[in-house]
Amino acid sequence: MEKRKLNFWQIWNMSFGFLGIQFGFALQGGFMSRIFQTLGAAKDDIPLLWIAAPLTGLLVQPIIGYMSDRTWSAKWGRRRPYFLVGAILSSIALFLVPHSPALWIAAGFLWILDASINISMEPFRALVADKLPESQRSYGFVVQTLIIGIGTWIASNLPWMVSKLGVSDAAASGVVPMSVKVAFAIGAFVFLTSILFTVFTTTEYPPEDMEEFEREKAKKNQFISDIVNNIGSMPATMKKLGVVQFFSWFAFFTMWSMANPALTEHVFQTPVPVEANYNMDVPAQIEAYNTANTAFQKSSNLVGSYMGVYGLSSMAFALFLAFYTSKRRINRKYVHMLSLILGGVGFIMMKFIPSHEYLNISFILIGFAWGSILSMPYAMLSSSVDPKKMGVIMGIFNMFIVLPQIVAALGGVNFVSNLLGSEAINAMTVAGISLILGGLANLLIVNPNAITYQQTEK
């Protein structure tokens, strides 16, 4: 089936649901560690508490990709039913997570939230490959990244914005501030409505051979063998991209899990207060604790806002690439390599900046890496695999996203950063080194179609 080219707004509509998905990811990535710290988690415990995110991705993404490849409804299509189910579950989890009364409950909600987001996210990646001709793949993934950048910036600033509107950052010991609760509620609303927009404004192509599709669908108990077979036969380009992805996602997991303790402690000089260090029977000590806690919560708002800058930067980067790739070819390998190296420099700078305003520079550079991570590997991969298996291949490819995060959560972040010292900011240095290694690993990619699509259409 020859796919027709889509205009910008058609691609925008089919990708708009990613705005909500990114609201969920940005609130999770920017503020989940803050919630853990508020509920009493120690710095070294935080990466392990985050293990829910990569584990659910490892389990959910290949399953959802496989199932969506074998789904078809004349009314709802192939991928859109999964968008909708994931959106409903994610919105419920987003609303409830900041109301967690205990650390273990917050960790449990993270499992639910991440699994639900993955149900929606994985089919979105496959939808771009489903809907667009080969010549528009880079353009499509870049537009998707543009929307992700918008969502990252707005969602990362939500607690700060809500606080500026007068909602309190103060809270009792072990209680998440109301500003965070309101921000997560807004995120839940945006998640659901943006997914609904894509569901009702986008159509999908039916399977090319419906009879063959029905025969494949009728086969039973093929999931594990199909997954194993596809892993065993993955193209060489996919394996090499896996090396790039390992270092890239190790770095970003380190940022999401450790940026709040690292930056509140090192840059803002307002570490989370430990209640055991205060005599809570003495009014002056209670006041001192509350003052320190409010300072930590306010600086956490600013950490989230600065993290939003990488979303804004990735949006600008994606906008540039969207216009460029709509008319011209790019060398995906070198674009991705340079972007990751710049992001690595941004992370390493954090240890040496004289004041928190310089975090803008760091996160601008990190945004270049983020914008590239969300588009270039998928564009390179989609030019190297069987389009009939796009959903399951994208799901398997995302194993290269979750495995490095599992390694990081199970002690990788703590082990490597502690080699540099006990300060939390060393985790950001580790993230920078990892991104630079990921950038250099792009030199492994040699497939010419993956590097630069050889356009043949008029």
Write up what this structure looks like.
It is a single chain. With 458 residues, the chain is mainly alpha-helical. The protein has one domain: Growth Hormone, Chain: A. Helices cover 72% and strands 0% of the residues. It has 19 helices and no strands. It has helices at 8-15, 17-38, 46-49, 52-69, 80-96, 103-131, 137-164, 178-201, 210-218, 223-232, 236-266, 283-325, 332-349, 359-373, 376-382, 390-397, 399-418, 426-440, 448-451. Helix 4 packs parallel to helix 6 (103-131) and helix 5 packs antiparallel against helix 6 (103-131). It is globular and about 75 Å long. The two termini are 17 Å apart. Its main location: membrane. It comes from Tenacibaculum geojense. It holds the Pfam family MFS_1. It is a multi-pass membrane protein. This is MFS transporter.
Entry summary:
72% of the residues lie in helices and 0% in strands.
Summary tags:
mainly alpha, Growth Hormone, Chain: A, 0% strand, globular, disordered C terminus, transmembrane, transport, MFS_trans_sf, membrane, transmembrane helix
Give the SSE layout.
Layout: H1 8-15, H2 17-38, H3 46-49, H4 52-69, H5 80-96, H6 103-131, H7 137-164, H8 178-201, H9 210-218, H10 223-232, H11 236-266, H12 283-325, H13 332-349, H14 359-373, H15 376-382, H16 390-397, H17 399-418, H18 426-440, H19 448-451
Domain Major facilitator superfamily (MFS) profile: 237-458
InterPro entries: MFS, MFS_dom, MFS_trans_sf
Protein name: MFS transporter
